[in-house]
Design a protein that fits this description.
Elements (H helix, E strand, L loop, with lengths): L4 E2 L10 E6 L3 H5 L1 H11 L5 E5 L8 H5 L4 E9 L2 E9 L2 E5 L5 H6 L8 E4 L22 H15 L9 E4 L6 H15 L4 H10 L1 E2 L2 E4 L10 H8 L1 E2 L4 E3 L4 E5 L2 H6 L9 E4 L3 H23 L6 H6 L1 H15 L7 H15 L8 H4 L3 H8 L1 H11 L4 H13 L3 E2 L2 E2 L6 H10 L5 H10 L1 H4 L9 H7 L4
Parallel strand pairs: 1-11, 2-3, 2-7, 3-6, 4-12, 7-8, 8-9, 13-14
Antiparallel strand pairs: 4-5, 10-13, 15-16
Helix pairs in contact: 5-6, 10-12, 10-15, 10-17
Length: 464
């Protein structure tokens, strides 16, 4: 198609606003909004989204010009084949900014159809700001804005217990729902809102802890003309997303009946406890990423894609996941192996260039959280040490020497960590180096040199 049309010409069904979304960014548009589109297609959800811009003081012009429509371009590797497809998103009703019209923002609370609030205001977004005074003006923080909105809803509906909302924060912090609720309750108390409001919040509004996972690189600037030809539209809001998506929500059976993702085939799970899913992600996905970096980098490989194309490193990564990480986790084996296969597919995504050196940021603390617990758990269960992860540990120590065959490695970590390794690598004896590193409780949260057999095992890999 040589003359793409404006995307605003696409017919659009009018639906009641059931979701308020804090954040206009790529992630939510390629994740939650894409899911709402599928809910509308496959269930009787029949709802639209109103987006609240949480930063800045002017709404991007592209939204209105495109009638709030855009494409999500799904590109990646899944189940042994390349995925390259697109979906038009028509589920957004509008975008507004409290800083431009605070009255309009508060009036959104009067909507009888409203059911959900979704947010992604970055990890620093869920904070309590003492400088936010009584909200006759726009609160600075996201929790402050949310508190003002919820209070407006409480007063407008006179405390009606059927008008509570389900809040689904997507910020990447642990217990995000609990932390957001705590901030809201603190604002309500600070602003001297009536106790009846606090009781209404506690009883009728559900703040769910959630865990989200999807890579959404954003606008396809390198392939824009190609996408125009595929879609037939000029689309300046398009976002690229990988095929994989995962959303775990701590919630009740009632939530399942409202947020009907089970009918759609979406990888969304409403569960009683997020912890097993969080542990699975940290140990398998993040752990494999972290373990891969020093092993692959010291072999001259510079990206995840290159690592997966290398037969030796690819086998190393697969064996590490299936033979060393999965056996230490307590979810059903079938679920763990399915997740492992999905992780390997994600690593093979030919459309995403993921530099190992960028993953290596703060590798010591990442190794402590993501890999070391697996080493210790494997040893506890079997009496042996996991060979591949110990190799990664040894290579991590070598990586922090800061050079390989005369080539400088651009290490990025805490200054104290970099200074420690600079001193350690002045020692010429590998045994001394390993002993000193393992004994450093600041690095690992515990002294590792006293674990029988670990030191000898790590030292053994320095000869390989």
């Amino acid at each position: 198609m040589t003359n793409p049309k404006s995307i605003s010409l696409k017919p659009k069904k009018t639906r009641p606003v059931k979701v308020l979304q804090f954040g206009t960014g790529n992630f939510l548009r390629g994740f939650a909004d894409w899911m709402v589109e599928i809910l509308n297609e496959k269930t009787d959800f029949d709802g639209s989204i109103h987006i609240i811009q949480s930063h800045g003081k002017s709404i991007p012009a592209g939204f209105g010009k495109q009638n709030f429509n855009y494409h999500v371009l799904i590109r990646g590797f899944q189940n042994g084949k390349i995925i390259d497809e697109q979906k038009l998103i028509t589920s957004i009703n509008g975008v507004s900014n409290p800083n431009l019209d605070y009255g309009f923002y508060l009036d959104l609370a009067k909507n009888t159809d409203l059911q959900f609030i979704i947010s992604n205001t970055t990890e620093a977004g869920i904070v309590f700001d003492e400088k936010d005074t009584y909200p006759k003006k726009v609160p600075a923080s996201f929790p402050g804005k949310l508190t003002a909105l919820l209070y407006k809803r409480f007063t407008f509906f006179e405390g009606n217990e059927t008008k509570g909302l389900t809040i689904l924060p997507c910020e990447l912090i642990e217990n995000n729902g609990d932390q957001l609720k705590e901030c809201v309750m603190r604002y309500a108390a600070k602003w001297n809102f009536p106790q009846e409001f606090l009781a209404w919040l506690d009883k009728t509004c559900t703040f769910c802890n959630t865990l989200v996972d999807r890579i959404v690189p954003g606008f396809p600037k390198e392939n824009f003309e190609e996408f125009e030809k595929k879609t037939g539209f000029v689309d300046h809001l398009a976002v690229v997303a990988e095929p994989y998506h995962f959303w775990a929500i701590e919630g009740s059976e009632t939530l399942k009946s409202i947020f009907q993702t089970e009918k759609t085939g979406l990888n969304v799970h409403i569960v009683k406890d997020l912890q097993p899913y969080r542990l699975r992600k940290v140990r398998i996905l993040n752990g494999a990423h972290t373990a891969m970096v020093p092993v692959a980098y010291l072999k001259g490989i510079r990206t995840v894609g290159e690592a997966m194309e290398n037969p030796i490193i690819s086998t190393y990564i697969s064996d590490t996941i299936y033979k060393e990480i999965v056996p230490t986790l307590d979810l059903p084996k079938e679920d763990l192996e399915q997740f492992a296969a999905e992780v390997l597919d994600r690593f093979r995504n030919p459309f995403i260039r993921h530099e190992l050196i960028s993953i290596s940021l703060n590798s010591i603390s990442k190794f402590r959280v993501r890999v070391l617990p697996t080493i210790l758990e494997y040893h506890s269960r079997s009496g042996q040490f996991p060979e591949n992860l110990i190799r990664s540990f040894a290579d991590l120590i070598r990586f922090y020497k800061g050079d390989i065959n005369g080539e400088s490695i651009p290490l990025k970590d805490e200054q104290a960590v970099l200074e420690f390794f600079e001193k350690v690598w002045k020692k010429e004896n590998y045994r001394e180096i390993v002993e000193t590193v393992l004994a450093n409780e600041y690095l690992w949260g515990m002294g590792l040199s006293q674990i029988p057999g670990l030191k000898a095992k790590v030292i053994g890999f320095f000869g390989n």
